[in-house]
Amino acid sequence: MSEAEKMKPEGAPEPERQIHDAALDWFLALQDGEVSKDLQDQFDEWRITDSRHDAAYREVVQSWSRSEDLREVFQDTHVTPTPDRQVDAHPYWPPLPAKQRPQRRLPWRMGAIAATIAAATLALPEAMLRLEADYLTATGEVTSIALNDQSRVWLDTKTALAVDFSQPRRDLSLLRGAAIFEVAHDAERPFAVKVGQAEIRALGTVFAVHEAGDASLLVQVTEGSVEVISTIDGAQTNRQVIEAGLQLRLTRAGTFGEFEPVRGNDWAQGFIAIRDLGLKDALDEIARYHPGQILLISDAPSDLKVNARIPINDIASGLSALSAAHGLGVTWVTPYLLIIS
Fold first, then answer.
1. Which among 207, 229, 206, 210 is positioned nearest to 218, based on CA atoms?
2. Which one, of 236, 182, 175, 180, lies nearest residue 211 by Cα?
3. How far apart are CA 14 and CA 218, in angstroms?
4. Which one of 80, 160, 248, 322 has the fewest CB atoms closer than 10 angstroms to its CB?
């Protein structure tokens, strides 16, 4: 499969993070040596199929342009413009100095580029989130908070929560991430958590809410019960009551999945649980708790399954053990950039 095919979206609608990642992949691919007409055509096709693709790519380019660090990284890795491909003539191609491309490119260099672009691109949304949230956890941080009604909330890594107790209701908004809610009973003041187009109403309970990367929502109930209400443009579309011991997924389209037994929230006990995941998915899950970049450049079998329980406060040792168990190596380029090979 070509690099272009790997970056083509599958299914619809695409999650925003997937679009951003594809735009970043395209940006790096277009810097990597001479670009063939076929690759350029595939990029143009990807860009025009969805306005969000174009917007995401422009955002990556603008982030690169704002970053002096990236300019330094690119000083010896760009290509010389040719008469049939003038870089300043293409509105989606950032201008590069005209120097000779080196014979050999270090793998970590592209990882550093990707990490810097991603940080710059995501800076503004993160700032807006900080303004909206009352509670915000950093990467790798898991904590609990006591609300003024005696309820308690446990927040997972990179979770943002807004709280509004000014009305007769107790309204909370999970803006990002995952949280466990232990709700203090108060029949006069209903307790509700809003996540996107859904609202979860507690009926005297302990429950968890996870905002998944694919824009779906997972609700787990360990005590009591909750009522989940799905809305689109303010109009109620579905509702479902979840009893203790069960979990239910709500899709982006507002439909419910099948009831399943609750699976443990290991993060609340300080662990990252990896259960029968592919290697890339396992590293993606671990990366949610690592304040940096984890790059996989191994040719490990695509059907390799990983099972592990890694302490959040000692990811380095956990990754070393996981890698050794599967014949992989770990290279720490910096405290924030590691390579699995």
1. 210
2. 175
3. 18
4. 80
- Judge whether 260 and 246 are in contact, CB under 8 Å: yes
Cβ-based neighbours of 98, under 8 Å, separated by 6 or more: 80, 81
Pairwise CA distance, residues 295 & 308, whole Å? 19
* Residues 255 and 217 sit within 8 Å (Cβ to Cβ): no
DSSP characters over 258-276: --EEPPP-GGGGTEEEEEE
CA distances to 89, 160, 268, 270 from 143, rounded to whole Å, are 50, 12, 8, 10
11 torsion bin: left (phi>0), alpha (psi -120 to 50), beta (else): left
* Of 157, 221, 226, nearest in space to 198 by CA: 226
In the sheet that holds 293-296, the strands lie side by side as: 293-296, 337-340, 330-334
Asked whether 175 and 163 are in contact (CB, 8 A), the reply is: no
Q: Residue 171 pLDDT more than 80?
A: yes
Helix (H), strand (E) at residue 185: none
Q: Cβ(199)–Cβ(231) under 8 Å?
A: yes
- Structural contact between residues 341 and 329, judged by C-beta atoms closer than 8 angstroms: yes
β-bridge mates for residue 306, sequence order: 277
Report the alpha-carbon distance of residue 286 to residue 180 in Å, rounded: 20
Beta strands 235-243 and 217-223: pairing type?
Answer: unpaired
For residue range 1-39, what is the model confidence (pLDDT) as tens digits?
A: 433 333 333 443 455 667 777 777 787 777 656 778 888
Q: How far apart are CA 324 and CA 326, in angstroms?
A: 5
| pTM for the predicted model, two decimal places | 0.62
